[in-house]
């Protein structure tokens, strides 16, 4: 196959596909129905024209027959008057008119037969047009319903795809939210442990030092308790005594057992 033939085939196939997309069967059916109505109208006009011609010939026949009857009366009158020559002339003219009438009757019969044929064809064509119109409306309704169903299906398909994208977006949002929550929790823990300074509020140096000293006292008390268990030192004082001011500790030291507390 030559290059030009291939290009021509490709062009025709693409053109046919483009035309197929542009074509609306409902518009095509309506156009076909309109064309049939126009043809039916032409047939009806033809029937009317033939009927008009037939009627004109019928009038000519009536006029010719009246003229022939007149010539016959003239021939009788001429014979009554002794004018045989004049009677012959009247009868000759009547004979010519009768010949014309015979020709007109043949033409009339032909036109009448043609009119009947065209009338029958018009009736048949009318029945076909009516049947086509009914079928056309049925096809149009079916096509419209199918088109609506297709659009609904496409809409559902689009919604399904969109929901898939929305689901991915929600998953990403949930993942980012979890990451932010974990990060916020880690920062809170760092702030609580003192590993990360909180610059958003006021720093209390005294409270920080007291917290540090309190943490150290707990360690010392634990060491003393362990030594006492090992027999290396007396039992440690309670945490309350460790945390009391110096004056209260001295008072407790000079009190003797059995004294009122």
Core attributes:
261 residues, mainly alpha, 2 domains
Contiguous helical run count: 6
How far from one another are the termini?
121 Å
Beta-strand content bin: under 5%
Mean pLDDT: 77
Number of strands: 0
Count of the separate structural domains:
2
Main sheet overview: none
Radius of gyration: 62 Å
Helix content bin: over 70%
State the secondary-structure class.
mainly alpha
- Give the H and E element order: HHHHHH
Tertiary shape: rod-shaped
Low-pLDDT residue intervals, each spanning 5 or more residues: 242-261
Summarize the structure in words.
By secondary structure, this protein is mainly α. The chain folds into two domains: about 5-165; about 205-240. It has six helices and no strands. Helix 2 (about 25-80) runs antiparallel to helix 3. It is rod-shaped, with a radius of gyration of 62 Å. The relative contact order is 0.05. Mean pLDDT is about 75; it is low at about 240-260.
Helix/strand layout:
Blueprint: H1 3-22, H2 25-80, H3 84-193, H4 205-229, H5 239-243, H6 246-254
Helix pairs in contact: 2-3
Give a quick summary of the entry.
This protein is mainly α and 261 residues long.
